[in-house]
Write a structure and sequence with these properties.
heterodimer, A: mainly alpha, 4 helices, about 85% helix, B: alpha+beta, Immunoglobulin-like, 5 domains, eight-stranded antiparallel β-sheet, seven-stranded mixed β-sheet
Chain lengths: ~120, ~725
């Protein structure tokens, strides 16, 4: 093996080791990144669900009058922002309530779904 | 001559009254957006263009129509089917615009002023605030509020001309020649003319300048000759020539629209592609496309579930869901939640145990009163606060600083046995006090709430240190037993935390923890019990005490005190005390990433004498401890000291002396800082004998090379 060949082999080995090292680093960092993204996602979801929950309690549960068009639009936008199927379905169930008992049950279900979908810690 | 003067005067009057009406306020009842001032600024969505030529925004006395353009979010419809931006004819806007990507945008805070300038802001949940009159943005129109217009509408100066006379014809407009075909084999074509409801007349021409065109009644379909009006000498129709047809639309008052046009190419024969080619195209195109399209479908079964994208939540357009009329559940007719329950949530008193605690600990009662925590819902106010409950001595209002003749001594507690009967009577019942150092050091406990919203006391100590527990039952007891239970190795930060779920569960009334019955049952899982001990009352004063060593492994423990009452109706009652056991501090030497414990090191603790303002060696013997402490093979040391200012000093043979920075101890707690010692001969470690030897060899080699060189030069010089 000539000197030049030895140098090439060493160079290739350095490249391979470098690739393995940086690949490992990349993998480790991407794992951390995924965890951080997930945590941020949870935080966003929580915030949206909380916003809707607060709006629902303030404008619907505490109201004694008919809910105005603008408020209903705000509620609809807020519930859509959560992007959560369960919350949307519970909300739709409440909107579609035909009797007082049905509405009371769907309110309870909606609040329950909201709390279940808020992840603590 | 006189007649001429009268004519001139009449003409003058006409110019004065009619010119402003037709020119200055030409479109003040049906305005468009100014070409320069057309941008509003949205805090979240950036620039919004109200004057985009394709948006075709019109402002009338009753509404705004057309579309605004957001480069980031697309079109904003000002007149969606379920709402729309309304105008009260004086420029006060109301109602909502709709954008697919932004939802509803409320325009009720926007006003068009008398100069046609948009002022105020529109807002939406997603879009945020859209400003119309910020420093770099402006939107203006030639529409004017009714009150700002000259009296044309009211008939005062407009000679009875109605306001609609000034309106331009309303869109949509379009013209299609032969249904928008590309070619025509004849110069006779069919025109399809689309226009709004207020269009009554049209003018059609083969020329853009409408030469020779006349206004005629508006019709939807019209036969048209592409050669009409063209000079006779010009060959028409000419093969492969493109012909345009122009149209203008008019209202009954003669207001005209812009010019619209369509094109068609005249040809004698439309070249059709050979049938075989058409069939080939029909066959090859779909096949190629289908194979390409099928690739994802073929691969679909092989893609693992977790890699497959989640199907998006498909929602109906908001205008199809939210109607002007509220759904029955939102009309305020029904009681959705029991008002009493809602009231209970808001006005529910503090949890029973917390109320009892405020009665037993006056300082806690004072804190709650001053902060305004009297109800369950108000606990939120102090959820991030760290509440410290005072030790026994402080709780009884006794001075913690011993005053002797002419000097102030270190703060210390008072042993229970030394308390007078009067003070003993004042000790709060069913409350655990913890002491150490021969009962001279009081542990201040931290108040926390558990997951069920019940208050818990928490103390922090050090492994193996003795703990003296004091409890006073409120009724005669048969016995008082204690259990030390292991909870977890994980040491959680001490803070006052109200679990969010606990509060919200209460909102649901699914788990009404604050109105539930008091649980009298006492269950201790035997398998978790590390130690069982009994409290004693040797002097029969009704105060039970016990002394136990703190567990030898760091972690979180629970000391449960169970009082078995003589009165069978009272049964048993338990008091829980969370005990966080911290490890002892150790003295070490760092060697790379490793830590080597140093045996035989002497650790001193000094306290600040407030009287002399000097640090003095802390008198540990009074507190059943040693000072200084000599470390064993584990290199550990620890002190439990009363509150005050302290600093640590460590000496070890072969190491530089360590003098720590002063620190404050606010509650009776452990001093267990890990201390790194530096060796006196640190440079020996930096350069070891191998490195030294290598350096020496290199130096010798270099010297050898130098000597060779000198010798060679000398030889050369000698030869010369």
């Amino acid at each position: 093996m000539t000197r030049q060949e030895v140098l090439i082999v060493i160079f290739i080995l350095i490249l391979i080791v470098g690739n393995i090292f940086f690949g490992g680093q990349y993998f480790s960092i991407s794992n951390k990144m995924t965890a951080i993204k997930r945590s941020a996602e949870i935080q966003k979801t929580n915030e949206k669900a909380l916003n809707f929950g607060k709006l629902f309690i303030d404008t619907v549960l505490r109201s004694e009058n008919e809910i105005g068009f603008e408020t209903r639009l705000r509620l609809e936008n807020a519930v859509r922002e959560t992007g959560n199927k369960e919350i949307l379905s519970a909300w739709q169930k409440f909107i579609d309530s035909k009797t007082e008992v049905e509405a009371q049950k769907s309110v309870k279900d909606l609040l329950e779904v909201l709390i279940d979908n808020i992840q603590v810690d | 001559m006189r007649l001429n003067s009268i004519s001139k005067f009449t003409l003058f009057l006409l110019v004065i009254f009619l010119i402003p009406t037709f020119f200055v306020f030409a479109s003040d009842t049906d305005g468009t957006i100014d070409n320069t001032n057309k941008y509003a600024w949205g805090s979240k969505i950036g620039w919004v263009n109200f004057g985009n030529s394709n948006g075709n925004i019109h402002i009338t006395d009753s509404q705004l129509t057309g579309y605004a353009w957001s480069s980031n979010y697309g079109w904003i419809n000002l007149n969606p089917s379920q709402s729309g931006v309304r105008n009260n004819n004086n420029g006060n806007l109301s109602g909502n615009a709709w954008a697919q990507n932004l939802g509803w945008i409320d325009f009720s805070n926007v006003i068009i002023n008398s100069s046609g300038q948009f002022t105020g802001y529109a807002s939406g949940t997603v879009s945020g605030v859209i400003n119309f009159d910020c420093s770099n943005c402006a939107v203006s129109t030639d529409w004017r509020p009714l009150s700002a217009r000259p009296s044309a509408d009211t008939g005062a100066g407009g000679a009875g001309v109605v306001s609609s006379a000034y309106k331009y014809p309303a869109p949509p407009f379009s013209i299609l020649v032969n249904n928008d075909d590309e070619y025509s084999v004849s110069n006779k074509v069919n025109l399809k003319l689309f226009a709004g409801v207020d269009v009554e007349k049209i003018a059609i021409s083969n020329y853009l300048d409408f030469r020779g065109a006349i206004q005629e009644p508006y019709v939807l379909n019209k036969e048209w000759d592409l050669c009409t009006g063209r000079p006779i000498q010009t060959e028409c129709p000419n093969e492969k020539t493109t012909y345009s047809v122009y149209v203008k639309f008019y209202t009954r008052w003669g207001r005209e629209s812009e010019v619209f046009s369509d094109k068609i190419i005249f040809t004698k024969e439309i070249v059709k592609k050979p049938i075989i080619q058409q069939i080939t195209e029909k066959i090859t195109k779909p096949i190629t496309k289908k194979v390409y399209e099928k690739i994802p479908e073929i691969l679909k079964p092989f893609i693992p579930e977790f890699l497959k994208p989640k199907p998006p939540v498909v929602l109906k357009p908001i205008e199809e869901v939210v109607f002007k009329i509220a759904p029955i559940a939102m009309r305020g007719r029904w009681t959705l939640v029991d008002p009493k329950a809602l009231e209970r949530l808001v006005f529910a008193p503090l949890p029973r145990e917390l109320r009892a605690l405020t009665q037993k600990v006056p300082s806690l009662y004072k804190t709650f009163s001053e902060v305004g925590v009297t109800r369950f819902s108000e606990l939120e106010k102090i959820k991030t606060a760290k509440l410290i409950l005072p030790g026994l001595t402080q709780n009884l209002g006794l001075p913690t600083v011993r005053v002797e003749a002419g000097k102030i001594a270190i703060p210390e507690g008072i042993p229970v046995a030394k308390l007078s009967q009067d003070l003993k009577n004042k000790i709060p019942t069913e409350y655990i006090f913890v002491k150490t150092g021969g009962e001279l050091i009081d542990f201040n406990t931290v108040l926390t709430l558990n997951e069920k919203g019940k208050p818990q006391q928490k103390i922090v100590t050090i492994v193996g240190k003795p703990l003296q527990l004091v409890v006073k039952p409120d009724q005669p007891v048969k016995s008082v037993k204690g259990y030390v239970i292991f909870k977890s190795r994980k040491l959680e930060p001490v803070s006052f935390r109200i679990p969010f779920k606990a509060l919200n569960n209460s909102a649901l009334f699914a788990n009404p923890i604050f109105i539930g019955p008091f649980d009298k049952s006492v269950e201790v899982e035997e398998k978790l019990v590390l130690m069982e001990f009994e409290y004693t009352d040797p002097d029969g004063d009704g105060i039970y005490t016990a002394e136990i060593p703190a567990p030898l492994v760091e972690g979180e423990y629970e000391i449960i005190t169970v009082m078995d009452y003589e009165d069978p109706s009272l049964g048993m009652k338990e008091i829980k005390l969370i005990t966080v056991v911290d490890p002892e501090g150790y003295i070490y030497e760092k060697d790379g990433n490793k830590e080597t414990r140093i045996p035989g090191a002497i650790a001193y603790i000094y306290w600040l004498n407030q009287e002399t303002k000097q640090y003095e060696l802390w008198n540990a013997s009074n507190y059943q401890q040693e000072n200084p402490q000599t470390t064993d093979v584990r290199g550990v040391y620890s002190f439990i000291v009363p509150e005050g200012f302290y600093y640590l000093k460590v000496e070890a043979p072969g190491y530089m002396s360590y003098d720590g920075k002063p620190f404050e101890v606010k509650e009776g707690s452990g001093v267990h800082i890990n201390i790194e010692m530096k060796t006196k001969y640190w440079f020996v470690k930096v350069v070891d004998w191998k490195s030294l030897l290598l350096i020496v060899i290199i130096m010798m080699l270099l010297y050898n090379f130098y000597r060779d060189r000198v010798r060679e030069r000398k030889l050369i010089n000698d030869k010369k």
